[in-house]
């Protein structure tokens, strides 16, 4: 049983069945205003932005009218495929050795946990992994990462708390190069994207990677919490401006939040989702599957 | 240009066609409410809460006399604002204290900021003369206990921990320890959990039953989206929380989740966490939050303050300058003085919507002592130089620096800031709200 079927089971319980609601409305009013309003509500309550929602639903409505469609299921399928096309434009991320993955994001989205899972995933794929504890700010962050490193059985490079994060990155790169490590994963401190000085610190780390390890395949991933609302957009925008973002890791998808903001994100910023986090266990990470993601919304 | 394209702009647009109506009609309200609805949804207020809220506000707004001093836009915003504030309740940051030890328990999703909050709360209570004990009941997240120990040390609070034991037992032992060693307050950190995790929710209920907390605080990330309603509702139903705490409010989220959670639980918002430092814990201000949710900063107070500080004549003159972009260094000085009358530039900037992030205002830019130097520099210029800053060459700069007791670098910086301000004015000049 895949995650999303597990997830769907949860959702049907908590959500009172969107399908049921649509059925009721359709029985009363066929494909009238109420039906489309309901579709809009469905997207909005999944944290798709109002703007994107209106654009997408308007488009569906027009198509349905043009095709003189009277079938509710067909309209829902139209909507699903429109959503699918919006978010499904990138292939799964292929991490080529030697690789550096820097994970960034605001506080509390699950960066450290995600890195533990990623390390484990790469080890299982037969790659050698080193992780760099460049979150030198949060109390005991490197302790937390050490536990994950132990679980995934990978090496960890760390300094003491309060040390210069870029120095950790520098040392980790030296070590990764010396040992021909396939994947170096860098944990960074959570920072709200409005804090200019912390974003400057991040840019410095980014420069260190580029300068010290120019031949590495360098991926910058942002971790976004699925329970976040419209602020996710600002987060990606500002981090993207600061260091350039190659992909999104959508965390905490095992809750009841849908992370619908990624639809608006894909619409406007074109940053693909590459991984999803689905729990607190080390195996709870998967490649993003657009189809499953959409299905879980309905 | 996203800066001022908030609700007020949209409403201005809607009402631009109507002038001097005596009353707000139903149709006008309906159109305006569509924009209010979008603004609230964009701020992450839950959709069911929005529907209820909009219905209530419409009812109140229809048929209302437009006050002489306000435009229809301001009138609608005023009603929306008042209703928002009413809904979010009054300032109530008081914690309940019982016979010692008072037990305060944390609850919330993963990554909401519970552990950091425990440290902040500990520090706050300590400053109030209490003696808090921090109890580590997050036995699941790796190094959560270490994190609490570090945070506790920074706050100067004792941390009680029993490693990865049974959280219910640890909580109980923590309270017993507090009793024996004279701690008057116990703050219990708990592991983050999903509201649908039956086993872990049961664990919280068990802790509650064991230690009978005076306060159960639901800690919520202010960036939370639509799911906030469900989270708050479930936690409240199972634990009967006593209050909410908003974290990470120092970001640029509009924080609509606040409204959702307040609406669904009816519980007071007790504190806001606004920074990385342990001292960054504030009481909750419903009026500020209302403005934030509407995406308009504290525009209303700004309008009021501006009206007090600027005479009609000055305002007209300034508006003309805005329009013609003929803003001189002399006007720059006048602006500074006006700002001072309005409570200092820090206050004013804090009230402007979207100001924090977009223009990257640094502390040193808004140092009020700096302003005195600015004044000195401008007053050391000739009238001609003030009108035509482009003529200021290096020999003039040298003279100005000497005259004002500053350095050439400072003169340069001022000229640069002036240019930036001019740019800003250009962007603002089309906005009605800011023509004071």
Describe the protein.
The complex is a heterodimer of chains A (298) and B (436). By secondary structure, chain A is of the alpha/beta class. In chain A, 52% of the residues lie in helices and 14% in strands. Chain A has twelve helices and eight strands. Residues 1-15 of chain A have low confidence and may be disordered. The two termini of chain B are 21 Å apart. An eight-stranded mixed sheet of chain B has the order 3-2-4-1-5-6-7-8, sandwiched between helices. Chains A and B meet through α7 and α10 of A and α2, α6 and α9 of B.
Index terms:
heterodimer; A: 298 residues; Four Helix Bundle (Hemerythrin (Met), subunit A); Rossmann fold; 2 domains; 8-stranded mixed sheet; 8 strands; 52% helix; elongated; B: alpha/beta; 9% strand; flat
Shape of chain A: elongated
Kindly report the greatest chain-chain contact and the residue count on each side.
A-B, 46 and 50 residues
Separation, N- and C-terminal Cα atoms of chain A: 18 Å
CATH superfamily of the largest domain in chain A: P-loop containing nucleotide triphosphate hydrolases
Q: What integer value in Å does the Rg of chain A equal?
A: 21 Å
* Extended strand count of chain B: 8
Q: Could you give a quick summary of the protein structure above?
A:
The complex is a heterodimer of chains A (298) and B (436). Chain A is α/β, with parallel strands linked by helices and 298 residues long.
What layout of secondary structure does this protein have?
The complex is a heterodimer of chains A (298) and B (436).
Chain A: H1 3-15, H2 18-29, H3 33-44, H4 50-66, H5 72-87, E1 99-104, H6 111-124, E2 129-134, H7 141-152, E3 155-157, H8 165-178, E4 183-188, H9 196-212, E5 217-225, H10 231-243, E6 247-251, H11 261-268, E7 273-277, E8 285-287, H12 290-297
Parallel strand pairs in A: 1-4, 1-5, 2-3, 2-4, 5-6, 6-7
Antiparallel strand pairs in A: 7-8
Helix pairs in contact in A: 1-12, 2-3, 3-4, 4-5, 5-12, 6-7, 8-9
Chain B: H1 7-15, H2 26-42, H3 47-61, H4 72-88, E1 102-107, H5 114-127, E2 132-137, H6 144-155, E3 158-160, H7 167-181, E4 185-190, H8 198-211, E5 215-221, H9 228-239, E6 243-247, H10 257-265, E7 269-273, E8 281-282, H11 286-293, H12 299-309, H13 312-324, H14 329-341, H15 344-351, H16 355-358, H17 368-379, H18 383-387, H19 394-404, H20 408-428
Parallel strand pairs in B: 1-4, 1-5, 2-3, 2-4, 5-6, 6-7
Antiparallel strand pairs in B: 7-8
Helix pairs in contact in B: 1-2, 1-4, 2-3, 3-4, 4-11, 5-6, 7-8, 9-10, 14-17, 17-19, 19-20
């Amino acid at each position: 049983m895949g995650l999303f079927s597990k997830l769907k089971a949860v959702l049907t319980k908590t959500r009172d069945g969107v399908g049921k609601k649509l059925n009721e409305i359709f029985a009363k009013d066929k494909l009238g205003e109420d039906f489309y309003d309901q579709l809009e509500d469905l997207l909005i309550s999944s944290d798709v932005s109002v703007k994107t929602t209106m654009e997408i639903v308007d488009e569906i409505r027009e198509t349905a009218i043009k095709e003189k469609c009277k079938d509710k299921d067909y309209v829902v399928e139209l909507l699903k495929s429109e959503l699918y096309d919006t978010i499904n434009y990138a292939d799964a991320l292929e991490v080529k050795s030697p690789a550096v993955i820097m994970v960034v994001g605001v506080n509390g989205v699950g960066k450290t946990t995600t890195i533990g899972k990623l390390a484990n995933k790469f080890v299982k794929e037969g790659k050698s992994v080193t992780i760099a504890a460049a979150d030198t700010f949060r109390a005991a962050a490197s302790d937390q990462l050490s536990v994950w490193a132990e679980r995934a059985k990978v090496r960890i490079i760390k300094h003491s708390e309060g040390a210069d994060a870029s120095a950790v990155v520098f040392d980790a790169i030296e070590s990764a190069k010396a040992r021909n490590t396939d994947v170096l994963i860098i944990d960074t401190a959570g920072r709200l994207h409005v804090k200019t000085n912390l974003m400057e610190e991040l840019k410095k780390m980014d420069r260190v990677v580029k300068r010290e390890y120019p031949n590495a395949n360098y991926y910058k991933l942002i971790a976004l919490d699925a329970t976040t609302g419209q602020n996710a957009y600002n987060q990606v925008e500002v981090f993207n401006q600061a260091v350039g973002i190659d992909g999104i890791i959508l965390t905490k998808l095992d809750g009841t939040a849908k992370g619908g903001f990624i639809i608006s994100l894909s619409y406007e910023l074109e940053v693909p989702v590459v991984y999803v986090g689905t729990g607190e266990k080390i195996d709870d990470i998967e490649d993003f599957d657009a189809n499953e993601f959409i299905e879980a919304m309905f | 240009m996203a800066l001022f394209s908030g609700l007020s702009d949209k409403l201005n647009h809607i009402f631009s066609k109507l002038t001097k109506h005596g009353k707000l009609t139903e149709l006008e309200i309906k159109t305006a409410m569509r924009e209010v609805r979008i603004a609230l949804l964009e701020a992450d207020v839950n959709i069911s809460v929005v529907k209820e809220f909009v219905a209530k506000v419409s009812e109140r707004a229809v048929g209302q006399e437009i006050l002489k001093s306000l435009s229809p836009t301001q009138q609608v915003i005023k009603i929306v604002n008042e209703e928002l504030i009413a809904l979010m309740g009054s300032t109530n940051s008081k914690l309940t204290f019982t016979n010692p030890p008072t037990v305060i328990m944390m609850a919330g999703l993963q990554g909401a900021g519970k552990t950091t909050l425990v440290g902040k709360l500990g520090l706050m209570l300590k400053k109030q003369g209490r003696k808090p004990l921090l109890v580590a009941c997050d036995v699941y997240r790796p190094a959560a206990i270490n994190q609490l120990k570090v945070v506790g040390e920074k706050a100067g609070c004792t941390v009680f921990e029993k490693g990865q034991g049974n959280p219910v037992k640890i909580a109980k032992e923590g309270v017993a320890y507090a009793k024996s060693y004279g701690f008057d307050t116990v703050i219990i950190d708990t592991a983050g959990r999903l509201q649908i995790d039956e086993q872990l929710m049961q664990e919280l209920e068990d802790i509650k039953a064991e230690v009978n907390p005076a306060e159960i605080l639901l800690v919520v990330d202010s960036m939370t989206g639509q799911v906030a309603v469900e989270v708050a509702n479930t936690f409240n139903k199972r634990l009967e929380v006593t209050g909410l705490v908003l974290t990470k409010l120092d970001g640029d989220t509009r924080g609509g989740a606040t409204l959702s959670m307040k609406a669904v639980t009816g519980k007071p918002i007790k504190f806001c966490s606004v920074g990385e430092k342990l001292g960054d814990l504030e009481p909750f201000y419903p009026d500020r939050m209302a403005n934030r949710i509407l995406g308009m900063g504290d525009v209303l107070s700004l309008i009021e303050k501006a009206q007090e500080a600027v005479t009609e004549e000055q305002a007209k003159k300034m508006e003309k300058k805005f329009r013609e972009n003929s803003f001189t260094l002399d006007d720059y000085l006048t602006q500074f003085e006006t700002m001072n009358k309005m409570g200092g530039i820090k206050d004013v900037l804090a009230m402007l919507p979207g100001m924090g992030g977009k223009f990257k205002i640094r502390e040193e830019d808004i140092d009020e002592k700096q302003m005195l130097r600015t004044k000195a520099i401008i007053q050391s210029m000739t009238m001609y130089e003030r009108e035509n800053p482009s003529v200021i060459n290096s020999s003039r700069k040298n003279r100005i620096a000497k005259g004002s007791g500053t350095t050439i670098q400072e003169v340069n910086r001022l000229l640069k800031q002036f240019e930036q301000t001019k740019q800003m004015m250009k962007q603002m000049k089309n906005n009605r709200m800011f023509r004071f």
